[in-house]
Amino acid sequence: MKLLARVLALFRQSGELKPGSGMVSGVIALALALLCLLGVAAFHFPEYLSTPELRRQYSVDALRQLMLVALLLAGGLSLANIILGRQRWLSGTALLAVLLAVAAGGPQVPVGDFPAGTPYIGIDWFILDLLGSTLVFVLLEKRFPLYRDQPVFRVEWQTDFTHVLVNHLLVGLTLLVVNLLVHRFFGWAFYAPLQQAVQALPFALELFACLLVADLVQYWTHRAYHELPFLWRFHAVHHSTRVLDWMAGSRLHLLEVIATRVSILGALYVLGFSKGVMDAYILIVGFQAVLNHSNVRLRWGPLKYLIVTPDFHHWHHASDRAALDRNYAAHFAFLDYLFGTVARSDRPFPEKYGVLGDYMPAGFLKQQLFPFTWREKQDAAPADHEDSR
Ligand SMILES: [Zn+2]
Ligand SMILES: [Zn+2]
User: Fold this and answer.
1) Separation of 330 CA from ligand 1 center, angstroms?
2) By the 8 A CB rule, do 256 and 370 touch?
3) How far is the CA of 16 from the centre of ligand 2 (A)?
4) Looking at CB atoms within 10 Å, which of 27, 164, 229, 235 has the fewest?
């Protein structure tokens, strides 16, 4: 019981893991082992725990090999720590999770035929995206840090990690709702000759057009979120993070996620972009959104006037009064130059991030409820944001 309490306490802590103490390797081993346990569950119940859109893209055999590597790594790290006497409570728990995953079938769980069309949560999407994003972005943040002292498990990481988790698990529900709404609101505008003309464009031009249309819609919906007080209550959730890193961009109100996607995908649907271009767009939007919130400092040169970089989007999250309601674009920085909303400063990065007054509660659920409860609790706060414009 004491061990369980100690492991659970780990999830409530934040701050740097002391290097050389067995904490870093222990946490990696535990995280990998827990993901393997989730993966084994997804092998057992693929109809409920895997994402149909993703299943078409990967081979189950490759996933089995990936799980084997993860199990070996988690088992090896935790065994080494146990032998060396480093954080035995942590590595012992990780080893227990590895053994449980193996006992439950590990990478060998047979996956037979299963019915299509079942309601599901995207466990596979969560595991794969978390592994990939952690690997790419944590390495980038360590190699090119903007704030060198900012730890991976920084303040309120739990809140943003929950946003990441829920966004991934609800992928099926969001896709369903967004598709229904896109057809409901934009179905009337379906015009085949327009779609054929768009699809006749060369790939690069079609992709550029797709990103430009998406960003024009995004720019104006985003600006509306800032300028209309009712919408700001929802968008304030995204701005409430005081620390920016690869997880921070996922802090979003679910209704905002749905509304923004419906307006962007609706416009793209009406224009009829081809499947290849849409796939590329989804990859780019996912990568750029995470990168732009990351704790990185890279040299962009003149590119920074053209595309949205982390430098540019960090200013969007600044709580310096002069930078409020600036830098709305998500792909092309020139849109803000065009519409006169670019943040100007003689400093390369802002000093403080977050909402003025810091009125947002921590915790996923409280943030989802915030737009509906702020009036009673936080009368002055969102008005403060309006005054500052
Ligand atoms: Zn914003
Ligand atoms: Zn942002």
Assistant:
1) 10
2) no
3) 24
4) 229
